[in-house]
Amino acid sequence: DIQMTQSPSSVSASVGDRVTITCRASQGISSWLAWYQQKPGKAPKLLIYAASSLQSGVPSRFSGSGSGTDFTLTISSLQPEDFATYYCQQANSFPLITFGQGTRLEIK
Amino acid sequence: EVQLVESGGGLVQPGGSLRLSCAASGFTFSSYWMSWVRQAPGKGLEWVANIKQDGSEKYYVDSVKGRFTISRDNAKNSLYLQMNSLRAEDTAVYYCARDPTIFGVVSNYFDYWGQGTLVTVSS
Fold first, then answer.
1. What are the pLDDT digits (tens) for A43-99?
2. B66 within 8 A of B78, measured Cβ to Cβ
3. Nearest to B45 among A44, A46, A91 (CB)
4. What residues 34-93 of chain A have any CB closer than 8 A to a CB of chain B?
5. B15-42 pLDDT, tens digit each
6. Which among A90, A88, A83 is positioned nearest to A105, based on CA atoms?
7. Do A99 and B115 touch (CB under 8 A)?
8. Which residues of B touch A (CB under 8 A)?
């Protein structure tokens, strides 16, 4: 199975900050990677797919990059509604889909 | 508007069974791969199973193989998860999720999710 490792596990930041979260795959997954945002008590929301494609309706301050084994999610200017937990997910090894352990983004 | 509404969760004893349902609306259900994804309390996300548009292909995470069965009824726009021989480690919120299924091909992403239903396995 492909293992996904996110870093950091948690990060504190302020409104307006630029934040980057990284995700590393245990083997190459080309660009088969998605990012999700989850707020407490809510279902995850798809932000980015195919490593860098922005899902419809998602603000442009969110961006994704990377290929192979190393990926990043960047939020260019944090807004109050962005404080949440973020998960990466590999979509390369059909049908075995795996998620990272999550990164909690907290208010400083 | 795409909607996925899960039901059927609850408290069950170890070794017991439960059937989850997911009612879909706002899209052509029969055209999409569908999945179940779960989240144990305070933990991360775990894909559980998925099913092809016509039900001819089904896949499971190793930890539920032989115990869980995914199915669908396209006439009723519904997805199901039959869970048998339940264990404490199956305790989680179970989400129904849609694969974008672009041009009929599975993409392995999840663009819409239900609100989840809680399954608690405890004596």
1. 999 999 999 999 999 999 999 999 999 999 999 999 999 999 999 999 998 889 999
2. no
3. A44
4. 34, 36, 38, 42-46, 49, 55, 87, 89, 91-92
5. 999 999 999 999 999 999 999 999 999 9
6. A83
7. no
8. 35, 44-47, 50, 59, 61, 95, 100, 106-111, 113-116
Spell B89-119 as b/e; 16+ CB within 10 A means b: ebbbbbbbbbbbbeeeebbbbbbbbbebbeb
Closest B-chain CA to A49: B109
Query: Cβ distance B68 to B61 under 8 Å?
Result: no
Quickly state the pLDDT bin for B112 (edges 50, 70, 90): very high
Tokens 């548009």 belong to which residue? Answer: B53
Burial of A52 from C-beta contacts in 10 A (0-12 / 13-18 / 19+): middle
Tokens of A30: 């080309």
Nearest CB among B46, B95, B106 relative to A99 is that of B46
How far, in Å, CA of A74 to CA of A18, rounded? 7
A13 and A51 Cβ atoms separated by less than 8 Å: no
Secondary structure class of B88 (helix, strand, coil): helix
